[in-house]
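hey team, just a heads up i'm posting the complex here instead of the shared drive bc the drive is being weird again. everything in one block, sequence lines first with there labels, then the predicted structure for the whole assembly after. its two chains so it's a bit long, scroll down
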Amino acid sequence: RKEVEQDPGPFNVPEGATVAFNCTYSNSASQSFFWYRQDCRKEPKLLMSVYSSGNEDGRFTAQLNRASQYISLLIRDSKLSDSATYLCVVTHSNYQLIWGAGTKLIIKP
Amino acid sequence: DVKVTQSSRYLVKRTGEKVFLECVQDMDHENMFWYRQDPGLGLRLIYFSYDVKMKEKGDIPEGYSVSREKKERFSLILESASTNQTSMYLCASSSITGTGVYGYTFGSGTRLTVV
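-- predicted structure starts here --
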């Protein structure tokens, strides 16, 4: 079993809709959690951190559920430019980042 | 603008060749990393370095070696390239702050094909 698991998708969503996807992690000692965004044939870029109390950044909301060991990302009022692969990242230490394989999101006009 | 620069965007090499992938960062970061990314598998850590001349194995070091002679440069070496090393290779660097993710910057990647 992978340490960090994501539904690979693709999620096909109409423009303007709300979409959410989860990421589960197996190591209860995981310290920090992040969502990255990766466009096709580009490098990953940090989208947002995930805090215990949940956090928002514009149309994006991230949540952490330690009891069930998952994090989630919700995108409201989705735009065509949100089409990308979303990578979940979990850290154990200053050096070690554990990456999910990503969830592909396609926003359709 | 801070940068991590990888020497080649696309590379085609023959089986058995020795391959060098270069990565240079201009942020004075202590940590540097080499990943490979394959469909369905996500990013897998090959090697990382937290200081000049220091290196640590990641999850999949077999068939690879690294060199860090200067702080800004981290090289990945494929001693004898094989077709199963065809992949996207990503270099990253970070400073030792917080969890290490902040300031974690990737290069634009090298797509290596071994034929």
